[in-house]
Structure formats: structure tokens, C-alpha cells
Design goal:
With about 350 residues, the chain is α/β, with parallel strands linked by helices. It has 13 helices and twelve strands. It has helices spanning about 15-25, 40-50, 85-90, 95-115, 145-160, 190-195, 200-205, 230-240, 265-275, 285-295, 300-310, 320-325, 325-340, and strands spanning about 5-10, 30-35, 60-65, 65, 70, 120, 165-170, 185, 210-215, 220, 250-255, 280. Helix 1 (about 15-25) links the parallel strand 1 and strand 2. The longest helix is centred in the N-terminal third of the chain and has 21 residues, at about 95-115. The radius of gyration is 19 Å and the shape is globular.
């Protein structure tokens, strides 16, 4: 059995019999976990082990563990600063800022891998322009070159722990005010400005080997009439063609309000896959996930299968050994600076 094209979510902290059946469906490829699925590291480890034991190759288990206000697992995990905090460190001392962000990437990945989680949907590569509240301090900085530098440092740490990285939200969500979870964002700027500014961090990280990209649920009206995640122009012409990206393309959640622009959930799923996504996400709507599974029962994309192999978590230290590791202790002390001085993020 190969990886199916759908990543879906779970209702609670343990698998139900119905969810086991859904995850054994040939169109299932992975699970994304949320705060409601988490109680403690022990509980998480048991849940992930149950998911991984269901089939071969193992289903992916992923989470949004960026840090700041987007950290699904908190109690029992190190509290990670928001990305903008590292931008503040960089402004004060670029060398230390880059060291700190690499340590934080390693810490995030090591703690997830210790419980069996394969990857986090991070880092955010959007620009911190102040226009987008939903991005806000999730962005490293407003300057594209600094975003690229800090994200590259974060990814170096993630890779050192044995985890793949996912850059989002291609080609950039930082210059639209609407929240795509709740509305349909439209970027009215010139295509040339988007390519020159917002796309710059993605270009840099693709050149350095990032494994996966997640497109934005945003319409860039002067470049393509479709949302980026449903756009042949953005995914095939720009991402695959001009940027020569060879990794995985994950859709953003197809249940988000902005995605409804593409039609019913099954039409959205087909449109995203046809536009160039390798794996699609349907979250917080199990009925829709079931419809997509049924509609994609016979779907197959051997090229996507080859790309997805790289997303499995690789090396890891179990929790007990990790917390005895000198690197972990040093990393926890470093990010504790955020607890002592969180106001750096307010300057950005």
C-alpha cells in the first residue's frame, strides 16, 4: 500500500474504530494533529505509535509547531518563541540571531521526533510587513533577505535533528489583510513585485534544498485568477518550472473559507491535485474528509510517491535520552530568554 493523497485529522486523543477504518483507506496518506489531540508526551507517543502501526509505508504524522501562538503541543514541550523574536535578535546581533534560530529549529524537531511525529508545517516564509494579522509575528522579519537567512538557519537545525521542513505560504501571505481561514484574500499588487519581494525567501530556500512547500489560499489577481494552491501558473509554471522545485507540495487546509472559491470539497481536492499538489489537507470536517477519500479511491501519482518518501522522520533520540543530551539543555536555556524578555517581538 502506498501513501494516499489525503492528510486528515482526528477528533480526540485516541483513535476511534471509525478513524482506524478511515486511515486504512487507500486514499489516506497522513494525519495532522491539533491541540485537541494532545494531553501529554506519553499520550502523544502512544497515539502516534498506533497511527504508524496501521500500515506500511507508515502514514505521516504532522503538526503545526511553529512556536509563539501556533504551537499545538505545549505542556511537556518547550515553549518556543514566535519567529519574529528571532528577527529582533538578528537586528541586534545577526550572528547570535542565526545561532539562536538554528538551535530553536533543532529543539522543535528533536522534541517532536522523540514522540514519533514526522514533521511540522514550518517555517513560515511570509514577510512580516504588518499588513496581515494572521501572519503577524509568525513571520521572521519584513526584509526578504533576512527572512531567508533566518529560515535557512531554522531549517539547518531541523535537518540536524533528522526532520524535513515545509515552507509556507507560497508565494507569500504577508501582504494581504484578510485571514484565509475566514475570508478570501486577494493580493492586488503587480506580479513583478510579488516575484521580486515575497517570492525571494522561497527561491533561496528551494535553492538550499527545502523538502516541501505549502501554497497560500490567496488570489494574486494580476498573476492568476485562481487561488495559488489551485493554480497551474503558480504551482507548475513558477514553482516547478522557474524555481525548479523538486520536493513535495502540500495544499493548505481545503476546509478553510477561502478554499470554497474552488467549489465543493471533492472538486477542491481534484483541482488542487491537478494543479500540482502532491498531498492535500482536509481538517476539522470529517464528513468532507470521507467524501474526498471515496472520490480519490483510485487516485495514483507515482511521482508524488517518490517525493513524499523524504517526509518521514529519520534520526531521533527518545525523550529520556534527549533530555539528558547537553544540546537539549543548552537549547532550552537559550529559548528561555524569550520567557525573560518576550517584548522583543513587540518591536516588530
Amino acid at each position: 500500500m502506498s501513501h494516499g493523497p489525503l492528510m486528515l485529522d482526528l477528533q480526540g486523543k485516541m483513535l476511534t474504530n471509525e478513524e482506524r477504518e478511515l486511515l486504512l483507506h487507500p486514499a489516506a496518506g497522513g494525519v495532522i494533529l491539533f491541540s485537541r489531540n494532545y494531553e501529554s508526551p506519553d499520550q502523544l507517543s502512544r497515539l502516534v505509535s498506533q497511527i504508524h502501526a496501521l500500515r506500511e509505508p507508515k502514514l505521516f504524522v504532522a503538526v503545526d509547531q511553529e512556536g509563539g501562538r501556533v504551537q499545538r503541543f505545549c505542556q511537556g514541550f518547550t515553549r518556543l518563541p514566535p519567529a519574529a523574536w528571532f528577527g529582533g535578535l538578528y537586528d541586534d546581533d545577526p550572528v547570535f540571531g542565526l545561532q539562536a534560530v538554528q538551535i530553536a529549529g533543532w529543539l522543535m524537531a528533536s522534541e517532536l521526533l522523540a514522540e514519533g511525529v514526522d514533521f511540522s508545517f514550518a517555517p513560515v516564509l511570509d514577510l512580516g510587513t504588518g499588513v496581515s494579522q494572521v501572519i503577524g509575528n509568525r513571520a521572521f522579519h519584513r526584509e526578504p533577505a533576512i527572512v531567508a537567512d533566518l529560515a535557512h538557519g531554522w531549517i539547518k537545525g531541523v535537518h540536524a535533528a533528522g526532520m524535513a521542513a515545509v515552507g509556507k505560504h507560497f508565494p507569500g501571505h504577508g501582504n494581504v489583510s484578510e485571514d484565509s481561514h475566514l475570508a478570501l484574500p486577494v493580493d492586488k499588487r503587480r506580479r513583478e513585485d510579488i516575484l521580486m519581494e515575497d517570492l525571494s525567501p522561497f527561491r533561496r530556500l528551494i535553492e538550499s534544498g527545502i523538502e516541501a512547500i505549502m501554497p497560500a489560499h490567496v488570489i494574486y489577481e494580476k498573476a492568476s485568477p485562481e487561488l495559488a494552491g489551485f493554480s497551474h501558473y503558480w504551482l507548475k509554471q513558477v514553482l516547478r518550472g522557474e524555481l525548479r522545485f523538486q520536493g513535495v507540495v502540500f495544499s493548505d487546509d481545503l476546509s478553510m473559507t477561502a478554499a470554497a472559491e474552488a467549489g465543493s470539497v471533492t472538486l477542491r481536492a481534484r483541482a488542487a491535485l491537478e494543479a500540482g499538489c502532491d498531498m492535500i489537507l482536509v481538517c476539522n470536517d470529517q464528513n468532507s474528509a470521507v467524501k474526498v477519500l471515496d472520490d480519490l479511491s483510485d487516485y495514483s501519482d507515482p511521482t508524488a510517491q517518490m517525493r513524499l518518501i523524504r517526509m518521514h522522520g529519520r534520526t531521533k533520540l527518545k525523550r529520556g535520552k534527549l533530555r539528558l543530551d547537553k544540546r537539549w539543555k543548552q537549547a532550552v536555556e537559550m529559548v528561555a530568554r524569550y520567557e525573560r524578555n518576550p517584548t522583543l517581538e513587540l518591536d516588530l
